[in-house]
Design a protein that fits this description.
Radius of gyration: 35 Å
Number of helices: 31
CATH topology of one domain: Isoleucyl-tRNA Synthetase, domain 2
Shape: globular
CATH class of one domain: Alpha Beta
CATH architecture of one domain: Alpha-Beta Complex
Distance between the termini: 68 Å
Helix content: 25-40%
CATH superfamily of one domain: Valyl/Leucyl/Isoleucyl-tRNA synthetase, editing domain
Largest sheet: 6 strands, mixed
C-alpha cells in the first residue's frame, strides 16, 4: 500500500518514521544537547573545569583538520571526515572516556580578501557570514562538538597568541650542541662573555647595534633576509614553493610566478630537519604521508668541497665525492650570489661559441640567462625531459683533486634552494650532467668502471653510467688515489683527504628549505614587529598584543602586469601611514621612540600551526595554555612517547604543508618549555573523497546533474546525449549535492549512515543519491522494531530473548565494537543492519534488552533516532553517555562448527561439533560416525590426524 498510495500509508501509519518526523526529532535533540551541554568536555582545572569524576576517566582527544569557511557553503562531500570523527568521539564516550571533540575555523585566507578587493566589503564581514552558515550546516548533522571551545583564527583573542608564538620563535636560536631551541638572550650572553666566538672574530662589545642585529639574524629561528622568492606580480604577493604549480604558476589565480630577490620573513625549519625525520618513527601515521615528509625533507649524506677560484672558493655539496676526479665543469644556479663576482669583462681566449649563447660579453650572457631562468618554476627547471640550457660565466675554477681548470657555467637545472646552489658536474655518471656536456661539447671522463661492455672511454657513450656498486677508476693524483676501491670505501678515503687538506668535510644536506613566512596581503595576522631608525627589528612586548589589523581603504596589494617580473610588492598595510609610523615605549629602557611597523602579514598557515593547543584552554588570557591542562590532553603517555592528539582526521593533501609546519612549531614550543608534547598529532587518518558524476555536453561544458535522464545506459540532458565521468563534487561542475537537500528528504541520521556506509573511510567513493534510501529504510525498520506505527506506543516485551536472538545480538555487539574502534564504520553498519533484519524477520515483539542494546549500537552513528528511542524505552538520561554494550563470549562463538572427516584423503563425513571440542573427543566422535565406519570397512587404523574442531584425517593401516 505504501508504494502504490503513499498518502494512504501515512494515514494508516501516522507514527511512521518519515523525513518530517526525523526533522522534528533532530531539531529537538540538537536544542537539548546545546542547552544541556551534553558534549562539554571537562578540564582538570580552569574555567572549563568540570566533574572530577569525568576528568578521572581516560581521555581521548579527537580532531578534524581546520576547515576554511567558504562562502559557497558545504556539499555532501565536505562532512565525511566530520561525521567520522563524531562517530568515533561518541563511541569513545560510551566506552568510558572523557572526550574532547570540537571544531574551529581557519578563517584568514585569500578568497575573502579577493572578494573584498572586488566589492570593497571588509573580509571579516564575508568570513563571519560564511562561518555562521557553516555552523548552521554542521549543527544540522548532529555533530557532538564542545561549542565552548570553538573559535576562529581571525579572533583577536586567538591571533594574539599566534603573534606571541612568533615572538618566541623570533627570540630563539637553535643550539646544535644541545639539539634544541634556546632563548636568544643565552646566545647574546655567550657572545658577551667570549664563551662563543663572534663570527668575524671581533668582540661583541665592539659591534654596533646594527651589526649585532645582523649577527643574531643568522641564528634566530624567525628572521628576515634578502633571498630568492617566488614573486607573483598578478597577485602582488610572494608565494611559498608549495603554492606554485608544476608549470610555474600560482595555485590561486593561475598567474605566472618569477624568481626575485626580496626581503622576507622566514622560519628556520631546517634547523629541525633531523628531528622532524627521526620523530616520524614514533607517530601512528599512514606510511604514505611519512614517506612524503621524508622525501620533502630529503636527508642525504655527502661532503662539502671547495673549488678555488680567483683566490676564493665555490663550495659544492655532493653525495658522490668518490667521483671528484671525473668533474670536468661546474654549474651554479643563476641566482648564485658569486656569479657576478667571478664574471670577467670579456670572454677568455678560446671560448667555444656554443658556451656564449651568442652574447658579446659574459655579463650580457649571464644577465640574459638569469632573466630567462626567472620565468620558470623549480619543477620546470628540473624536468628530466627538457633540453638542457645554460651559459658560460667566463670563469674557471680549480678541481682540488687534480688541479685541472674547469669552466664554470650557470644553468637552470641547478637550484639555489638545494645544497649550496653549485654543483661539480661529473657527466659520465649523472644523466643531467651528461646531457648538458653533450649539448655544450664538454669533456666526459669515466671514473666508475661500467658493468656493461661500453668500456671506459666515455667519449663514445650514449648515456651516463650510474652505479653505487662498482670500482673506481682513473682517479689518482699526487697524494691520493681511489683506483680499485668500491664506492663506499672511496667516499670515506676522499672525505678524509679533503678534511686533512682543509678543503672539504663530510656533511649532511637536506632538500628542505626554510619556510617563507611573509605575505603581501591585508587579510592575515599582522607581524608583532617594529623597526627602529637603524632598520633593526624589535618584537612587541606581550602587553601590546594583540596587534590588530587597521582599517584600510583598499584591501588589495598592488598588482602588476602578470608577465612583468621587474616589479616589487606594495602591501595594503603600507598605505596606512598612521598605523605604520608609531611612537612606542617597548619597555627596553630606551623610552618612547619612533618605529615603523612590519607591513607584510603572516601566511594563512600560521593560525593552523597551533590550534590544537587553543582547543584545550580557549579562554585563557594569561597563557598560551595552562601546563596542567596541556599535559592532561596532549602529554606523552604509554604508546605515545611524543604525546599529541589521539586521532587527527583530514586530507592527505596537507602532508608537507600544514603537518610539517605544525610539527615544527610544536617542537620549538616544547624546547622552550611551553608545552610537554613535541609532536602535535599522534595518530593521523586520511579520509577518502566523496566523488560525483560530472555530465558534459558536446562542448565539454558541465550540465546540471539533477537534470540528467538515463535511458538504456545512456545519459541525456534536454534530449541531448551527454558524456558521464567521475570527478570532484562542486558548484563549478554542477554536480554538488547539499547536506540540506538530503536532510530535507531523509533526515540527518540517514545522511550520516549513508556517508559512513559507502565504503572504507580511507577510500574515495562516488556519491549516488538514489542509494541513500537504503539507510533510510534501515532506520524505518529500526523504528518499527520499537514503536507501533499506528499508535506510537512502544512495542518491546519483557520476555527473555531466545538463544538464536542472543547469538545474533552478541555477535553484532562484538563486531560493531571492534569495527568502531578500528574506524570501519561501513562494516559496523552492516552488522547493525543484520541484527535489525533478524529482529524484523522474527515477526514478534522485540525483547527489551535486545531493543536497548540495538539502540546503543547505532547511537554513535545515528544519534538523533537513538536518543529518541532511548527515551521512549523509558530512560531519562541521554544516550550519549550510556555504556556501550559488551558481548557475552558464550554467545559470540558459533554454537557448532562443521568438521570434515577424511579417509585416505577423501571426505567421507561432515560432523557438527562444539567449537570447544578437544582433539581426543573429536577423534572418538569421528571414528564412531557410521559413514566413517563404512569407509574403513573393517580396515585397521595406522594414524589419525586431528585439528579440532574442523578436521580429522584418518589413514588406514
Amino acid at each position: 500500500m505504501s508504494e502504490t498510495n503513499p498518502a494512504a500509508a501515512e494515514v494508516a501509519a501516522p507514527h511512521r518514521y518519515t523525513a518530517a518526523v526525523a526533522a522534528e526529532i533532530e531539531a529537538r535533540w540538537q536544542d537539548f544537547w546545546d542547552a544541556d551541554g551534553t558534549y562539554a568536555a571537562p578540564n582538570p582545572k580552569g574555567d572549563l573545569a568540570g566533574d572530577p569524576g569525568l576528568v578521572a576517566k581516560p581521555k581521548k582527544y579527537i580532531m578534524d583538520m581546520f576547515p576554511y569557511p567558504s562562502g559557497a557553503g558545504l556539499h555532501v562531500g565536505h562532512p565525511l571526515g566530520y561525521i567520522a570523527t563524531d562517530v568515533s568521539a561518541r563511541f569513545q564516550r560510551m566506552t568510558g572516556h572523557n572526550v574532547l571533540h570540537t571544531l574551529g575555523f581557519d578563517a584568514f585566507g585569500l578568497p575573502a580578501e579577493q572578494h573584498a578587493v572586488q566589492t570593497g566589503e571588509h573580509p571579516r564581514v564575508t568570513t563571519e557570514a560564511a562561518i555562521n552558515n557553516m555552523k548552521s550546516q554542521l549543527r544540522r548533522l548532529g555533530l557532538g562538538h564542545d561549542k565552548r571551545r570553538s573559535f576562529a583564527t581571525i579572533d583577536p583573542d586567538y591571533y594574539k597568541w599566534t603573534q606571541w608564538i612568533f615572538i618566541q620563535i623570533f627570540n630563539s636560536w637553535y643550539d646544535d650542541e644541545a639539539k634544541q631551541a634556546r632563548p636568544i638572550s643565552e646566545l647574546v650572553a655567550r657572545f658577551e662573555s667570549g664563551e662563543r666566538v663572534v663570527p668575524g672574530g671581533r668582540s661583541w662589545a665592539a659591534l654596533s647595534a646594527a651589526e649585532r642585529a645582523d649577527v643574531l639574524s643568522e641564528y634566530r629561528l624567525a628572521y628576515a633576509s634578502d633571498a630568492p622568492v617566488n614573486w607573483c606580480p598578478g597577485l602582488g604577493t610572494v608565494l611559498a614553493n608549495e603554492e606554485v604549480t608544476a608549470d610555474g604558476r600560482s595555485e590561486r589565480g593561475n598567474f605566472p610566478v618569477f624568481k626575485a630577490k626580496l626581503r622576507q620573513w622566514n622560519m628556520r625549519i631546517t634547523a629541525y630537519a633531523d628531528r622532524l625525520l627521526d620523530d616520524l618513527n614514533e607517530l601512528d601515521w599512514p606510511e604514505a604521508i611519512k614517506l612524503q615528509q621524508r622525501n620533502w625533507i630529503g636527508r642525504s649524506e655527502g661532503a662539502r668541497v671547495d673549488f678555488p677560484i680567483d683566490g676564493e672558493a665555490i663550495t659544492v655539496f655532493t653525495t658522490r665525492q668518490d667521483t671528484l676526479f671525473g668533474a670536468t665543469y661546474m654549474v651554479l644556479a643563476p641566482e648564485h650570489p658569486m656569479v657576478e663576482k667571478f664574471t670577467p669583462a670579456a670572454w677568455p681566449e678560446g671560448t667555444h661559441d656554443v658556451w656564449t649563447g651568442g652574447h658579446a660579453t659574459p655579463a650580457e650572457a649571464v644577465a640574459a640567462y638569469r632573466a630567462q631562468a626567472a620565468s620558470k618554476s623549480d619543477v620546470e627547471r628540473q624536468a628530466e625531459a627538457k633540453d638542457k640550457t645554460g651559459v658560460f660565466t667566463g670563469a674557471f675554477a680549480t678541481n682540488p683533486v687534480n688541479g685541472e681548470q674547469i669552466p664554470v657555467f650557470i644553468a637552470d637545472y641547478v637550484l639555489m634552494g638545494y645544497g649550496t646552489g653549485a654543483i661539480m658536474a661529473v657527466p659520465a655518471h649523472d644523466a643531467r650532467d651528461f646531457a648538458f656536456a653533450r649539448a655544450f661539447e664538454l669533456p666526459v671522463r669515466c671514473v666508475v668502471e661500467p658493468s656493461d661492455d661500453r668500456g671506459t672511454d666515455a667519449s663514445t657513450w650514449d648515456d651516463a653510467f650510474v652505479s653505487y656498486d662498482a670500482k673506481i677508476v682513473n682517479s689518482h693524483g699526487k697524494d691520493v688515489s681511489l683506483d680499485g676501491l668500491g664506492v663506499t670505501e672511496a667516499k670515506a678515503r676522499i672525505t678524509e683527504w679533503l678534511q686533512d687538506k682543509g678543503i672539504g668535510e663530510g656533511t649532511v644536506n637536506f632538500r628542505l628549505r626554510d619556510w617563507l613566512f611573509s605575505r603581501q596581503r591585508y587579510w592575515g595576522e599582522p607581524f608583532p614587529i617594529v623597526y627602529d631608525e637603524d632598520g633593526i627589528a624589535h618584537s612587541l612586548p606581550e602587553s601590546m598584543l594583540p596587534l590588530e589589523l587597521p582599517e584600510v581603504e583598499d584591501y588589495s596589494p598592488r598588482t602588476f602586469d602578470p608577465d612583468d617580473a621587474d616589479t616589487s610588492p606594495e602591501t595594503p598595510l603600507s598605505r596606512n601611514q598612521d598605523w605604520v609610523d608609531v611612537t612606542l615605549d617597548l619597555g627596553d629602557g630606551r623610552g618612547p621612540r619612533s618605529y615603523r611597523r612590519e607591513t607584510n602579514t603572516m601566511p594563512n598557515w600560521a593560525g593552523s600551526c597551533w590550534y590544537e593547543l587553543r582547543y584545550l584552554d580557549p579562554h585563557n588570557s594569561e597563557k598560551l595554555v595552562d601546563p596542567e591542562i596541556e599535559q592532561y590532553w596532549m602529554g606523552p603517555r604509554a604508546g605515545q612517547p611524543h604525546g599529541g592528539v589521539d586521532l587527527y582526521v583530514g586530507g592527505a593533501e596537507h602532508a608537507v604543508l600544514h603537518l610539517l609546519y605544525a610539527r615544527f612549531w610544536s617542537k620549538v614550543l616544547y624546547d622552550l618549555g611551553h608545552i610537554s608534547s613535541p609532536e602535535p598529532f599522534h595518530k593521523l587518518y586520511n579520509q577518502g573523497m566523496i566523488q560525483a558524476f560530472v555530465y558534459r555536453d558536446s562542448r565539454g561544458f558541465p550540465v546540471p546533474a539533477t537534470e540528467i535522464e538515463e535511458r538504456d545506459g545512456a545519459f541525456f540532458h534536454n534530449g541531448e546525449q551527454v558524456k558521464r565521468e567521475l570527478g570532484k563534487m562542486g558548484k563549478s561542475l554542477k554536480n554538488a549535492v547539499t547536506p540540506e537537500a538530503i536532510c530535507e528528504e531523509y533526515g540527518a541520521d540517514t545522511l550520516r549512515l549513508y556517508e559512513m556506509a559507502m565504503g572504507p573511510l580511507d577510500v574515495s567513493r562516488p556519491w549516488d543519491t538514489r542509494a541513500v534510501v537504503g539507510q533510510y529504510r534501515l532506520l524505518q525498520r529500526l523504528w518499527r522494531n520499537v514503536v507501533d506505527e499506528a499508535t506510537g506506543e512502544v512495542t518491546v516485551t519483557d520476555a527473555e530473548p531466545d538463544e538464536t536472538t542472543l547469538r545474533a545480538l552478541h555477535k553484532a555487539i562484538d563486531g560493531v565494537r571492534q569495527d568502531l574502534e578500528g574506524l570501519r564504520f561501513n562494516t559496523a553498519i552492516a552488522k547493525v543492519t543484520e541484527l535489525n533484519n533478524h529482529l524484523t524477520k522474527a515477526g514478534a515483539a522485540v525483547p527489551r534488552p535486545v531493543a536497548e542494546s540495538l539502540v546503543l549500537l547505532i547511537a554513535p552513528l545515528a544519534p538523533h533516532i537513538a536518543e529518541e528511542l532511548w527515551r521512549k524505552l523509558g530512560h531519562t538520561e541521554s544516550v550519549v553517555h550510556q555504556d556501550f554494550p559488551v558481548a557475552d563470549p558464550r554467545y559470540v562463538v558459533d554454537e557448532t562448527v562443521t568438521c570434515v572427516v577424511q579417509v585416505k584423503g577423501k571426505v567421507k563425513a561432515r560432523l557438527e561439533v562444539s567449537p570447544g571440542i578437544s582433539d581426543d573427543e573429536l577423534e572418538k566422535v569421528a571414528l564412531a560416525d557410521e559413514k566413517v565406519v563404512a569407509a574403513l570397512d573393517g580396515a585397521g587404523i595406522r594414524k589419525v590426524i586431528v585439528r579440532a574442531p574442523k578436521l580429522v584425517n584418518i589413514v588406514p593401516a
